[in-house]
Structure to design on (205 residues):
């Protein structure tokens, strides 16, 4: 079984890439979705978050209010580190368990771990190859602004808080350039998919 770590910055096209790889036959694990499950009531992380940040982070519905929690960690590096020290290990545990389940069901299947924080969380050792979807900062800001309906300056602030595109690229095994059209992006993924599965173009299509 091959496990690919797929990462990229805001609006880089990482999710589009993951969706296409899934259509090609990969089993995709979305770390962001696992991150939402981590906060569910009754979990270890839920209890630790409440103990660390206070009962007021729990909303009226009994779930953690992500906005209130975000207000406690945004712009506060020490609090953000406390939160990631709780959440990231739990996401890793869940991802590893899912990878093992897939491996038992079909050892030859390709697994894609889609994770925006792959490097920041130190999950490189979970994968055999790291694929980075690359997009320059200005293009990312424009695409994110149009997608989310927010001002580009607000997106720039979010980009400032992330690892730079250049840093990701230097640590990648495979770089997927998304500066062109979506068709260009998908074509690159098709080539990489053929390579990793030793397929001909006809077998992919």
């Amino acid at each position: 079984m091959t496990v690919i770590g797929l990462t990229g910055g805001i609006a880089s096209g990482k999710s589009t890439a993951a969706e296409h790889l899934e259509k090609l036959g990969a089993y995709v694990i979305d770390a962001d979705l696992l991150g939402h499950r981590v906060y569910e009531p009754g979990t270890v992380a839920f209890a630790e978050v409440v103990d660390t940040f206070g009962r007021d982070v729990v909303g009226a519905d009994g779930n953690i209010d992500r906005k209130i929690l975000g207000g406690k960690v945004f712009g506060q590096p020490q609090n953000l580190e406390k939160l990631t020290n709780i959440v990231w290990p739990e996401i890793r545990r869940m991802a590893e368990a899912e990878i093992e389940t897939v491996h038992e069901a079909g050892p030859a299947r390709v697994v894609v771990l889609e994770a925006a924080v792959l490097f920041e969380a130190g999950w490189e050792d979970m994968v055999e190859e790291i694929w980075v979807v690359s997009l320059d900062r200005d293009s990312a800001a424009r695409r994110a602004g149009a997608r989310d309906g927010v001002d580009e300056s607000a997106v720039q602030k979010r980009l400032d808080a992330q690892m730079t595109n250049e840093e990701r690229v230097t640590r990648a095994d495979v770089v997927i350039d998304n500066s062109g059209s979506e068709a260009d992006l998908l074509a690159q993924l098709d080539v990489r998919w053929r390579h990793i599965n030793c397929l001909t173009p006809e077998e992919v299509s």
